[in-house]
Amino acid sequence: MSYSPVTHTAGASARGTGPGLIGGLGRACYRHRWLTLLAWLGGVACLITLFISYGAPAQDSYTGSDPGQALLNRHFPRQSGDTLTLAIESAAPITSPAVRARVTGALAPFAGAAHVTAVTGPYQAPGQISRDGHIAFATIQFGVPSTKISNGEALALMTTPASRPGTA
Predict the structure, then answer these.
(1) Using 50, 70 and 90 to split pLDDT, how confident is the model at 167?
(2) Residue 58 maps to a domain
(3) pLDDT single digits (tens) 74-107
(4) CA-based nearest residue to 81, from 35, 19, 129, 148
(5) What residue numbers bound the domain in which 38 lies?
(6) Number of Cβ within a 10 Å radius of residue 109
(7) Mean pLDDT across the chain, nearest whole number?
(8) Sequence-ordered list of residues with C-beta below 8 angstroms from that of 155, at least 6 positions apart, any chain
(9) CATH no. for residue 142?
(10) Packing angle between helix 20-31 and helix 33-54, nearest 10 degrees?
C-alpha cells in the first residue's frame, strides 16, 4: 500500500475553494492596512467619546448612603451591622452534652458585649454543624459596622474564652 502526499496551494483548501470568510477579511485588512488602522482608531475614539458623555462615574464612597442598605437598616436594625463567625472544633462530638455545655457557656459573654445584637450558636440554626459532628460555627451579629467598634471593645471580644483555641 503506497501513500501519495497531498499538496496544497497557498490559500486554497482541499476542495479548491478560496481562503474563506476569515481569510478574505484578513487579506483585505492587510492590503488596506492604513485604512484598517484609521478605522480602528476612529472606533476607539468613538467609544471613548461615548463613555465620557454617557458613562456612569464610579462610586467609591462607602459612607452607607446605599439605598438598599438604608432600607435594610430601617426595617431590620438587628441585622444592619457586621457579623463575626467563630469556628468551633472538638475531639468529642459537638452534640455531646459536655461539649454543648462548654460551647454554650463560651458564647454567653458575647451576648452581653457592646454592639452585639444576636448570638446564634451551632445548636440554634440548622447547617452549622459539620457532617462528621466535630466542627461547627457560631455567628455573632453586631448592630453597627465593624469600623464603629473601638479597639478596646474588639480586644475585649478577642480575650473572651470562646475566641481562644482549645476552649470547646
Answers:
(1) very low
(2) no
(3) 776 666 677 888 888 889 999 999 999 999 888 8
(4) 148
(5) 20-52
(6) 17
(7) 79
(8) none
(9) 3.30.70
(10) 100
Whether the Cβ atoms of residue 126 and residue 75 lie closer than 8 Å to each other: no
pTM: 0.50
Total structural domains in the chain? 2
Nearest to 156 by CA among 107, 102, 114, 104: 114
DSSP lists the bridge partners of residue 138 as: 86
**Pair (34, 108) in one structural domain:** no
Backbone dihedral angles phi then psi of residue 106, each to the nearest 5 degrees = -70, -25
Q: Is 31 helix (H, G, I), strand (E, B) or coil?
A: helix
Tell me the pLDDT tens digit for each residue of 18-70: 789 999 999 999 999 999 999 999 999 999 999 988 887 766 666 656 676 67
Question: What is 87-117 written as a DSSP string?
Answer: EEE-SS-TTSHHHHHHHHHHHHHHHTSTTEE
Distance CA 126, CA 13 (A): 64
